[in-house]
Rhamnogalacturonan acetylesterase (Penicillium ucsense), 253 residues
Amino acid sequence: MAIIKATVLLAALIPSVWGTTIFLAGDSTMAKGGGGSGTDGWGEYVPPYTTATVSNQAIGGRSARSYTREGRFNTIANQVQAGDWVIIEFGHNDGGSLSHGDNGRTDCGGTGDETCTSIYNGVTETILTFPKYLENAAKTFKSKGANVIISSQTPNNVWEGGSYAYAPSRFVGYAKLAAETAGVHYIDHGAYVADIYRTKGNSAVNAYYPNDHTHTSPAGASVVAQAFFKAVVCGRPGLEKLLKTQSFEGRCL
């Protein structure tokens, strides 16, 4: 009886690796179903490589701003436990200009505390910068004792023009800045995907994009997920301890 009580007490004090959850917050490039028929998001291909439970809460068409406004970061914050992981990846839907109408997704320009005011769906909204939305979310999760990774957005088809070309959007740099400011881990997912795509070549990579240059097929989504874990193994933020393997395609950047 004493041994049983001691075991129960130890389990309560030390979080179990098997009880850890990885939460995913992102857009259609991460979400189930991706960008329509024949596509899927890379978040659906995370479970085979980790011992943790995976909660993919990515939603198509969302930006850091709209994900925040809809309370989706708060939903994760209400579920997350100390020791869990939250991976945040946005950027594809965050561009545009507020001067030509508000689509509900465009962030305020700038990289810090700048704000903009707009009326969206009849409601006056104070709009923050892209880094600030990510920083706020990351700090909320940290306050819950969770581990946070801010990840750069996946690249569009780097072989779309017939030759290899990768030009990171400004949101890649903004994501890195947000991670540094919030004091959380940063993964340059886009760079790792692009580098693996470079070695795979034109025909193979074009086949990953059945509908457009952004959304991947299931096979492409699997490659994108594995590229994320290659970056994790190389960067060693701690999440690598929850992986079933340390061997992934590609090189450390």
User: Anything to note?
Assistant: The chain has eight helices and seven strands. The two ends are 53 Å apart (CA to CA). Helices lie at 2-13, 64-69, 72-79, 130-143, 170-182, 189-200, 202-206, 218-235.
